[in-house]
Amino acid sequence: MDFQDLSAVSDLPYPEPIIPYSNPIEAKKLMNDYGGRDSETTAIMQYIYQSYILKRDYPEYAAKLEEIAISEMHHHELLGTSIAAYGSFPVIGGRNTFWNGSFVNYVTDLVRLLEADIQGEELAIANYEKTILCLQNDSVKQMIERIIVDEEIHVAILKSMLACAKAERRN
User: Fold this and answer.
1) From CA 79, how far away is CA 153, in angstroms rounded?
2) 82, 142 in Cβ contact below 8 A?
3) CB neighbours of 113 closer than 8 A, spacing ≥ 6?
4) Which letter, b or e, does each residue of 100-120 get, where b requires 16 or more Cβ atoms within 10 Å of its Cβ?
5) Span 86-103, pLDDT tens digits
6) How far, in Å, CA of 4 to CA of 25, rounded?
7) pLDDT band for position 170 (50/70/90)?
8) What does the DSSP assignment read for 82-123?
9) CA-based angle 79:141:82, to the nearest 5?
10) Which of 100, 120, 158, 170 measures 20 to 30 Å from 47, CA to CA?
11) How far is the C-alpha of 160 from the C-alpha of 33, rounded, in Å?
């Protein structure tokens, strides 16, 4: 199947939002996934950057990366809303630093950027799995498990894109 036919999100519904209550400790555990170096913020900015630079020469790749970015924006919203529901502030930054543009991988080669994107998605999944282990709130755990489903779809799409890009390069 061609990567253009693949949806960047699962059809599975997201769980109901958490009931707000003050818990700054749990909110802090979400911050790196929300706005740290290897976060939804970084993924959004990286995919949008890539869609801009690929639009002229690889419009189908650019469109799919933009679609993935939109999915990441939804994840960002879910995490930010959860942090706020916990009574904290969804500041764009991780536990130790504010977010900055140096977190984005600015590689321009199609194959190399797709390889970096796959690594980033796999790292996001691993980080989410670690986050789940640190949380008590079941609804937030379920939300993150649902986000992981989308991230796994992104890996599959990116691997399909990479295979196509390598095949095109050989021809």
Assistant:
1) 19
2) no
3) 50, 105, 107
4) eeebbbebeebeebbbbbbeb
5) 999 999 998 788 999 999
6) 41
7) confident
8) HHHHTTS---SB-SSSB--GGGS-----HHHHHHHHHHHHHH
9) 25
10) 170
11) 25
